[in-house]
Amino acid sequence: MLDGTAELRIMTSYSFGDIVTMYIAYTRSEGGDRRPLVCFEDTGEIINGFEITKQKGNKNYAQYRYELIDWKEAGCVVPSYVNLHPEDSKTLTKPDDIKYIGTLTERDQHGMNNKLQEIQKKFS
């Protein structure tokens, strides 16, 4: 899903729209995996964001995903989606081995933010 040729950089601070990879524990079973995450906030020790997937999802779940328009520019190698369902929000301790992959274009940052606001209204 991520560009294997992209230069992986380790940074200390991340901004809204940055894509990183880090270990994320599974929620429905034991273990976990290194997964891509779109950052919403970096407090220094904690990072908040949503996972990226290449799965569009079934009809019911697809309504909670934002399809990246400029996925190649962001460092993805296949069309990708951001899981924006409130239950998919991640608040994680920032690990030492977090890696920067890329940054969403301004168009995708605005589109994702608009989709998130639309979803949040459904849960208000």
Tell me what you see in this structure:
With about 120 residues, the chain is an alpha+beta fold. It is about 15% helix and about 35% strand. Strands 1, 2, 3, 4, 5, 6 and 7 form a seven-stranded antiparallel β-sheet that branches. Strand 1 and strand 2 form a beta hairpin. The chain is globular. The protein starts with 17 loop residues before the first strand and ends with a helix.
Reconstruct the topology from this structure.
Blueprint: E1 18-25, E2 32-42, E3 46-53, H1 59-62, E4 65-67, E5 81-83, E6 89-93, E7 99-103, H2 106-122
Antiparallel strand pairs: 1-2, 1-7, 2-3, 3-5, 3-6, 4-5
Structure summarized in a few sentences:
With about 120 residues, the chain is an alpha+beta fold.
Strand content: 25-35%
Secondary structure: number of strands: 7
Stretches where pLDDT falls below 50 for ≥5 residues?
Answer: none
The main pleated sheet reads as: 7 strands, antiparallel
- Separation, N- and C-terminal Cα atoms: 33 Å
List the defining traits of the structure above.
alpha+beta
